[in-house]
Amino acid sequence: EKGTYAHFMLKEINEQPAVMRKIIQNYQDDEGQLKIDRNISEAVKEADRVYIIACGTSYHAGLVGKEYLEKWAQIPTEVHVASEFSYNMPLLSEKPLFIFISQSGETADSRAVLVNIKEKGYKSLTITNVQGSTLSREANFTMLLHAGPEIAVASTKAYTAQIAVLSILAQVAARDNNIDTNVDLMPELAKVTTAMSAIIDDADRMEEIAREYLSETRNAFFIGRSMDYHVSLEGSLKLKEISYIQAEGFAGGELKHGTIALIEEGTPVLALATQENVNLSIRGNVQEVEARGAKACIISSEGLEKEEDTYVLPHVHELLTPLVSVVAYQLISYYAALHRDCDVDKPRNLAKSVTVE
Ligand code: M6R
Questions:
Q1: For residues 50 and 221, what is the distance between their CA atoms, to the nearest angstrom?
Q2: Exposed, middle or buried: residue 256 (CB in 10 Å: 0-12, 13-18, 19+)?
Q3: Distance separating alpha carbons of residues 250 and 241, to the nearest angstrom
Q4: How far is the CA of 55 from the centre of ligand 1 (A)?
Q5: What is the sign, positive or negative, of the torsion defined by CA atoms of 278, 279, 280, 283?
Q6: DSSP letters for 250-294
Q7: What is the helix (H) or strand (E) element at residue 312, kind and residue range?
Q8: What is the mean pLDDT of the chain?
Q9: pTM value surpassing 0.95
């Protein structure tokens, strides 16, 4: 039930802090140590490479998960769009572990890959919101998202839950391999929870941003580098699927290789600036598009902000920023769609769960 919320999407966006708390609760032991099923941590330890398979928003969560598995656990990781995997099957390593990320656990494209790799005898883990779903039943292992039912077609709380669960998996893998990542994950996730709530409390500001930048436009660009690039892809998907504004996410550095040709007077460009090592370069990109007439909306993180920024997100651990910046993009997309009288929860041509290949 929607309760007092106008739409399931808004309800689900608002539930994200509670979902984070639930994940923290479910993945720690009585001493506050990270806890996952031993069979899963052993499977990760045995693997020489991880292959993440997913579609849509879950694929975007996989892109963030790869950063955790590589940067924290030092496990080489590839992320593949499920529907492309069979045509562009990479040369597999000797001991691969497949991770399927799927909110519904029913996505046919992902299942086709699972059937294929099972035939070859490879191990698999499904990260899903639905216990007993097809992908959960058919994989060797399951990690649950604990996000509660997600009804709106646009995925919101499942994305942040997927990223949080992947961060836990990677931290456990690092611990098992005696790698000191210098991150005390659960307190960091608790900070994320507070930061998410702060943005949700600022929903009016998100509505203003949507009105100012997206009310008139036919297209919009999302740019970012590093972690912010992954979130830009997700932000653009969110906006396009519910508001029908043509939106594209790009790596800041790619603009000059073609996309900048599309910038006209007034084209909205939403830029994320949450990563210290690319702060200067993404701001350089903003200047480049502004010089061509773009209307830039910069969303930065506390500590990296500059006067020209449109909105400043609360500070969290740099690799966990996707959990926070995406909430701003979810709300901005929600209001942009609302302002256009779109059917937010049931956008045209889309189904919640895509059970055909
Ligand atoms: O249930 P799944 O996570 O496997 O679904 C994958 C995609 O179909 C899904 O994320 C889709 O992209 C959403 N509508 C995005 O909001």
A1: 31
A2: exposed
A3: 17
A4: 6
A5: positive
A6: EEGGGGGGTGGGG--TT-EEEEEE--GGGHHHHHHHHHHHHHTT-
A7: strand 311-313
A8: 97
A9: yes
pLDDT 10s digits, 315-353: 999 999 999 999 999 999 999 999 999 999 999 888 888
Query: Which residue has the CA at smallest separation from atom 4 of ligand 1?
Result: 102
Q: Residues 251, 224: contact at Cβ < 8 Å?
A: yes
Q: Helix 322-339 crosses helix 203-214 at what angle (to 10 degrees)? A: 60
Are 155 and 56 a contacting pair, CB within 8 Å?
A: yes
Pocket mutation for ligand 1, best pick of 58, 114, 163, 355 (most atoms within 8 Å of C-beta)? 58
Taking CA atoms only, the protein residue closest to ligand 1 atom 10 is 57
CA–CA separation, 210 and 224 (whole Å):
19
Pocket of ligand 1 (CB under 6 A): 55-58, 102-104, 107, 110, 153-155, 237, 241, 353-354
The torsion of the CA quartet 71, 77, 80, 85, rounded to 10 degrees, works out to 170
Active site residues: 352
173 CA from centroid of ligand 1 (Å): 27
State the distance from the centre of ligand 1 to the C-alpha of 57, rounded, in angstroms: 5
